[in-house]
Amino acid sequence: MSTNLNIxxxxxxxxxxxxxxxxxxxxxxxxxxxxxxxxxxxxxxxxIKPLExxxxxxxxxxxxxxxxxxxxxKATKSIDGEPLLFRPEKHIQRLNASARRMCMPEFPAExxxxxxxxxxxLEKDWIPSTDGSALYxxxxxxxxxxxxxxxxxxxxxLLIFCxxxxxxxxKPVSLKAETKYVRAAEGGVGEAKTAGNYAASLYPAxxxxxxxxxxxxxxxAKEFKYVQEVGTMNIFFAFEDKIVTPAAGGTILRGITRxxxxxILRSKGYTVEERPLHIDEIVExxxxxxxxxxxxxxxxxxxxxVRKIAYQDIEMNFNVDDYNICKLAxxxxxxxxxxxxxxxxxxxxxxxxxxxxx
Length: 358
Ligand SMILES: *Cc1c(COP(=O)(O)O)cnc(C)c1O
Prior knowledge:
alpha+beta, 23% helix
């Protein structure tokens, strides 16, 4: 480890108070967090310390003008109990792509790597070992200048903290193809994992839920004809002879699970196309009985089964019990995450035991 990392351990671990068989998603936090500051010129002050509140000035630029980006990744345990990360380098690359778009400073990849390994090594007892469970890791970067006026902040903070999460027994979801509101337009910030994208989705999502759907399937912002993605998931359509997922051309989040699943399915002999996908193609295939499976993919849910899509007054219902490709994708990722399946792509990275933590 090369990073000059200051480590202060908790003297008051919350670990024994957690019921690992019943963890509500997003509400239980582990003991420690990583923190770093950008002083206007460079990232400094690398530290791991007990999770604690920040003191934030009312004029904090992130609150007013939204310079805030995040990541979501998971640590798991192998069947032998060894802590593992999954494609961590993809997450720092994407964090830095989000940073560039939001006019924020990139974070050094080596420091990120050292920080994640050290933090997870320190929190290894927080990684649940039941199938499908994980330690969810949340890096977040935000503006820290104390000033009003729309401009890029000079100072920033990066935090990384962890939450144990149980197996995501998600029910199959129903989706409303949205034809009034948009998530992302070409030239916008749809490809960045930035706070405002999620704030903007809340009101249309509320209307969709009131109308009886679980989530929105976002369509393109010009014609409302081309499928984009769902909530915090990318989307896949398995037709009789091929699998199609919308191309990542600036308006969808480049999901790492999406990339993983494309690679897995291709290696199993499926044809997977990344291209614009018109709603008429979906409706037509559905009517002809050629649309077999629809599923969403993301780090949190891994793979989520879609049971229904409504587009205007057309309702498409799917029999999720017959989903095979979707189940294969899910079980392969879960098998890789505990190394019960051989990792042929060098995706799985054992957590380095670091000297200050041992
Ligand atoms: C995070 C996210 C995804 C999924 O990305 P993964 O890297 O697979 O977790 C998809 N869409 C949106 C909008 C997201 O925020």
